[in-house]
Design brief:
Structural class: mainly beta
Shape: globular
Distance between the termini: 16 Å
Largest sheet: 6 strands, antiparallel
Number of strands: 18
Helix content: 10-25%
Radius of gyration: 23 Å
Strand content: over 45%
Strand order of the largest sheet: 3-2-4-10-7-8
């Protein structure tokens, strides 16, 4: 059995060197949240892009509280799944930094069972300035880049179009841009499935391979149901 706590929705966000919190929404971004409460004007209007660019020379902190039950913690494995962190993210649970992410294009998964407790927990993610990071890397390892983009952008696994080009503005945003959740797994989980087909004499034989992530020593059985074109259902079970 698997249970999921969706951590999307209402968060709060602030500049790392400020105590002023802004309402935030996840999935979303720093620019989207600042525009939503009127702090930042539309960056696509006239020269507002320059103001937006300067704002991203700062670090930003996202924070929210959420509840975990005793039953969820009783599962063998509990993980934090971040489907999109943009980009240089320090992830902390209940005041303890658990991980650092540096790629906006992948899903990050961390075992957090030991950092959680029953009741209210606090998740905080601090995003370092992508502009300052790229500037530092450009000095350390200079090389050929587009003259229309922010120097050093090639050193960061972030959507390069955010750094400008001959057709677009320089708006290197940051934030939690895809879903984020806590997932509790009782015994095991199907990681992936491969189906081999063997066709002969008008019939089809299937061989189904399942790759399991096991979190206990208990026996785990996989049940498979296949619906034929005539509507009949074929079932099989295996370990």
């Amino acid at each position: 059995m698997t249970e999921q706590v969706n951590l999307g929705g209402a968060w709060r966000m602030r500049e790392a060197d400020s105590e002023t919190w802004h309402s935030a929404h996840v999935p979303g971004s720093v620019y989207a949240d600042l525009m939503a409460d009127g702090t930042m004007p539309d960056p696509f209007w006239r020269e507002n892009e320059l103001d937006a660019f300067e704002r991203m020379k700062k670090d930003y902190v996202y924070q929210r509280a959420f509840t975990v039950t005793e039953a969820q913690l009783a599962h063998a494995h509990v993980e934090l799944v971040c489907e999109g962190l943009d980009t240089l993210a320090h992830v902390s649970l209940n005041g303890c930094e658990i991980a650092f992410a540096d790629n906006m294009h992948i899903t990050w998964v961390w075992d957090v069972k030991e950092q959680l407790h029953a009741g209210e927990n606090t998740l905080e993610i601090r995003f370092d300035s992508p502009i300052l990071y790229c500037a530092k890397k450009a000095e350390e390892a200079p090389g050929w880049e587009s003259s229309d983009a922010t120097p050093g952008f090639r050193h960061l696994r972030k959507a390069h179009c955010m750094f400008g080009w001959d057709w677009g503005p320089r708006l290197p945003d940051a934030g939690i841009w895809r879903n984020i959740s806590i997932i509790s797994i009782e015994k095991a989980r199907i990681q992936d499935v491969r189906v081999d087909q063997f066709h002969k004499d008008g019939t089809v034989r299937l061989r189904i391979h399942t790759n399991l992530n096991r979190y206990t020593d208990d026996e785990v059985r996989v049940n498979v149901s296949v619906t034929a074109p005539d509507g009949s259902v074929l079932t099989a079970s295996g370990t």
